[in-house]
Write a structure and sequence with these properties.
Largest sheet: 2 strands, antiparallel
Oligomer: single chain
Helix content: 55-70%
Radius of gyration: 20 Å
Structural class: mainly alpha
Number of helices: 12
Strand content: 5-15%
Distance between the termini: 36 Å
Length: about 350
């Protein structure tokens, strides 16, 4: 008799399919509910003028994405400390994004939470995740350097606190790295979520890479969770492709960005994340360079930042930008997975 539990690769495939189907079936009802409640996207007046037509498009599709991911994770029944921490951090950052989205809808403006409030919320999630992943899940505070076989020990400055008879290890340098990865990646995906299908498509590709990495490391529950996120994003793309019927909102982008960072930490690919998620590095750097150049010289490097808006201002269609950024993500994520695979074979 065929038993799904005896075939881990089939379980990963099943996680993708279940999430695709669930989002595909439920999203039309979610869109109708959002329209009934008049929950629509508020468009920035200083953004591309072509985006003003998107004013009022239902948002917070990320709520359904995260709910389906959680449901698929529970249904498949593969639980572990690493995956539980990953889904908890994802949900916490998603909740922070939900508060931001809700503030935009209630106040009918394109700005929700203040940047400081977002950073503080993300920092709390990151530090809690970092402490738990080290003390409860047993993740080491070392970082592997790709292609060298070397590791960096970020546990050199470590404090141990006795809390109610329980020793709490605090590796300060590694906690700093965890903070940087979760806050940086969640905000980077949020920056990338500026065109129809762009964030969902790139997250799908990155998540498939991390599902493969986790599967290679025999972390089945982590591989299933990454696969479920990839599937949910694919299902969402059916309704988010240009012209979008719904946006994921900060609920989705902040939550999914945090998920990517947690997978990098869990699989010890913290440095490799810069390649696997290369598109997010490029998008973030374009904003940093734009701001720095304007403040120092009074001139802008790009017509508009992030980078996808630069190409939009040059006359590229949203679909053209989206597909080419997907291709670029496929190259970087595939390259990152290939480097990981070569390293794993050498060990």
């Amino acid at each position: 008799m065929f038993r799904l539990a005896e075939y881990p690769s089939y379980q990963v495939f099943m996680a993708v399919v279940l999430s695709i189907v669930a989002v595909g079936v439920l999203m039309p009802f979610w869109i109708r509910l959002l329209r009934f409640r008049n929950i629509g996207q508020q468009i920035r007046a200083d953004g591309p003028q072509g985006h003003l037509a998107k004013q009022g498009t239902p948002t917070m599709g990320g709520v359904l994405i995260l709910l389906v991911v959680a449901g698929t994770y529970v249904f498949l029944g593969q639980f572990g400390r690493l995956s539980l921490l990953a889904i908890a951090a994802t949900g916490a950052c998603g909740l922070l994004g939900f508060v931001d989205d809700w503030a935009k809808v209630v106040h009918e403006r394109s700005l929700g939470l203040t940047p400081r409030a977002k950073i503080i919320g993300q920092a709390v999630v990151a530090l809690a995740f970092g402490l738990l992943v080290v003390n409860w899940a047993g993740v080491t505070s070392t970082v592997e350097v790709p292609l060298t076989g070397a590791t960096l020990d970020l546990g050199a400055f470590t404090s141990v606190f006795d809390i109610g008879g329980v020793a709490l290890t605090v590796p300060w340098l590694y906690l700093g790295l965890v903070w940087f990865l979760i806050v940086g990646t969640s905000n980077a995906v949020n920056l990338t979520d500026g065109l129809d299908g762009l964030a969902a498509g790139t997250v799908t590709i990155v998540m498939l890479a991390y599902s493969g990495i986790a599967f290679r490391m025999n972390m089945l529950e982590v591989a299933l969770l990454a696969a479920a996120i990839a599937g949910a994003c694919i299902g969402f793309l059916w309704y988010n492709a240009y012209p979008a019927n719904i946006f994921m909102g900060d609920t989705g982008s902040l939550g999914l960005g945090a998920a990517i960072a947690t997978f990098a930490i869990i699989t010890k690919t913290e440095i490799l994340l810069a390649l696997i998620g290369g598109i997010y590095v490029i998008e973030t750097l374009s904003v940093i360079l734009q701001v720095a150049s304007f403040k120092l010289t009074g001139k802008r490097i790009f017509r508009m930042a992030p980078l996808h808006h630069h190409f939009e201002m040059k006359g590229w269609s949203e679909t053209k930008i989206m597909v080419r950024f997907w291709i670029l993500t496929g190259i970087t994520a595939g390259g990152g997975f290939a480097l990981f695979f070569v390293e794993s074979v050498r060990r």
